[in-house]
Amino acid sequence: MKKTILTGLRPTGNLHLGHLFGAGQNYIKLQDDYDFYLEIADVQALTDNFNNPEKVRKNVTEITIDLLSIGLDPNKVNFFIQSKIPEIAELTVFYSNLVTVARLERNPTVKTEIAQKKELFGNNGESITYGFLGYPVSQAADITTFDGEVVPVGEDQLPLLEQCREIVRKFNSIYGETLKEPNAILSDAKRVKGLDGNDKMGKSLGNAIFLNDTEETIKKKIMAAVTDPEKIKKDDPANPEVCMVYYYHNLVNTKENKEKVCSECKKGSRGCVQCKKELIEAMNDFLKPIKEKRSYYENHPEEVKEILDNGTKKAQEKAKEQMKKVKKAMMIDY
Length: 334
Ligand code: TRP
Ligand code: SF4
What we know:
It is a single chain. This protein is mostly helical and 334 residues long. It folds into two domains: 4-192 and 301-329, HUPs (Rossmann fold, 3-Layer(aba) Sandwich), CATH 3.40.50.620; 215-294, Tyrosyl-Transfer RNA Synthetase (Orthogonal Bundle). Helix content is 56%, strand content 7%. The protein is built from 15 helices and five strands. The strands form two sheets. The protein has a three-stranded parallel sheet with strand order 1-2-3. α3 (53-69) crosses α14 and α4 (86-95) packs across α9. The longest helix has 29 residues, at 301-329. The structure holds tryptophan and iron/sulfur cluster. The site of tryptophan (TRP) has 14 residues, from β1, α9 and β4.
């Protein structure tokens, strides 16, 4: 019997290189060995986008296409839409009795996010909604609805996993051994730096290359990338280690070319403009197969729909079974 993986993504934007080298490639490795449920977390996305339903709706399809384009196999991964699984919402209500408001307010992930969303939740989080404060509870329901044993998440999500484990222990201690305690595995062990040299590539940081960026956009972004600030003239020797252009050559170019860039940069026999042009080409080559797959799915929306429908059906079956167990344990199985 394969173990179950459950993970989720908020459909709020397209995937970028940071997602690909972090979570994406990790999912691709895991998909062979686990019973894999991948939740497109539209309900969670609405907790901080309740005033922008079009954005969430559009990105459910977009993110599914991104994930298929990087090589997730719909025969191995059950893609499903959170809002199509009412059991998750039901479980969230049951679990909400098992967690204090103070504990949610102390959750480091929630605290950070509230601070980042001043426009929505006020300068001191005074306008925080009930729904957003409670999303860790809902995420615990996401995981346990599917008996998720292994949960690949980014480091920033670890406090949410801990909160889930606490809820599971509390549930089991009151209602009897029913739920499995999930284990996190880090899915973003490989962090990708931004074009600006920031330690993290992020959509909101404005320093990302998206998998579906056009060639024109990629050109603009790479031409503006941060290079060795000490290099003024074309033939000044420089230090590739502090240059983002070299950093990306390393990610997407061949070994041979990388070495060439490195040694020519150090010698001063390479100009930054030429170096960027070569990176643009290498980046386009790297993204080409991903974009080809994307364009296939864009032209076959019925296939994308079918993949989501099939995955969601599987998820619904599993959720029904789990709900029976939970209701029996809670003595509400009328
Ligand atoms: N909160 C996660 C994120 O923002 C997305 C998510 C939703 C998730 N449900 C999940 C992650 C369940 C792991 C398990 O990245
Ligand atoms: Fe960076 Fe290339 Fe310029 Fe060296 S030559 S500083 S690697 S852009």
